[in-house]
Every structure is written in structure tokens, then in C-alpha cells.
Amino acid sequence: MAEKLKVNCIDHISIAVKDLKRAEEDFKQAFGWEVDGRYSDHEEKINVAYFMIGLTALEIMEDMDGTGEVAKFIAAHGEGIMVLSMNVCSAAESLELLRRNGADLVDRKPRFAKELNRYFAFLHPRQCHGVLTEIIDGKY
């Protein structure tokens, strides 16, 4: 029997968009929200803006130069939800549990996001029926 992964909350949901500024305006117009923060991750080739909804961040992200994973996702699927991220106490320990469970992992060890000062790892989308699923530790 598989071991149960303890998840604290949904950390964030990431939506791949073609035009970050336009998407920001669309969300502001529809919901009346203001952007809570922005960051760029040059290693992942993304620009991100996010809205906090309780403990969960709703990220909208665009590809920096048309060659990153967001651009590939949009080319294959169009704009839409690309990542579902679950907050865990330790990405390393959770990754080990997932490995023991036989999960289809993208990462063998956690990556470190300097911009967020957090560790994270991905499960392959085929494991979660088309959704790139992430485990991430620390606070958003």
C-alpha cells in the first residue's frame, strides 16, 4: 500500500499565458484584484505575477523568450493551467516518499528556487493525468 503524502495546502496554481500584462489586466478586471507580487526566474525562463487567494497563490506566467517550458506548453495545449503545486514540510522527504510509492518523477532531487528561497520538485504530467504537479516547501 502506498504511503500517504502529507500536504499542508495547495501552495499555488500556475496558468501559462502568452501575454503577462494582458492577463494581469484580465484578472484585475474580472475579479477586482491587485497583483500581490511579481518575479522572474531566468533559469526557468518565466516572468510571473501572482494574486494571493487565502493561502494559495494564483500565478500567471509567461515565457521570457519563446524557448522555455511555458512556450512549449502553450504550443501544445494553448493557454491554461500548467502547474498544481502542493505545499509540504520538506520537499526532500516528500520526494523520497513519492519515490518509494513508485511515482513518475521529473526530479530525482529537489531544485532550489532562489527567487522564492524554497525547494521544489515535479512529478511527470502523465502521473497526474496531464497536470504538471509540484511539491514545494516553505512559505509563498
Question: Overview of this structure, please?
Answer:
Helix content is 22%, strand content 36%. With 140 residues, the chain is an alpha+beta fold. The protein has a single domain (10-136), classed as 2,3-Dihydroxybiphenyl 1,2-Dioxygenase, domain 1 (Roll). Strands 2-3-4-1-5-8-7-6 form an eight-stranded mixed beta sheet. It is globular, with a radius of gyration of 15 Å. The chain starts with 8 loop residues before the first strand and ends with a strand.
Largest sheet: 8 strands, mixed
- The number of domains is 1
| CATH fold-level name | 2,3-Dihydroxybiphenyl 1,2-Dioxygenase, domain 1
| Assigned CATH architecture | Roll
Instruction: Catalogue the unreliable spans.
Output: none
Shape assignment: globular
Count of DSSP helices?
A: 3
Distance N terminus to C terminus? Answer: 32 Å
Percent strand equals 35-45%
CATH superfamily: 2,3-Dihydroxybiphenyl 1,2-Dioxygenase, domain 1
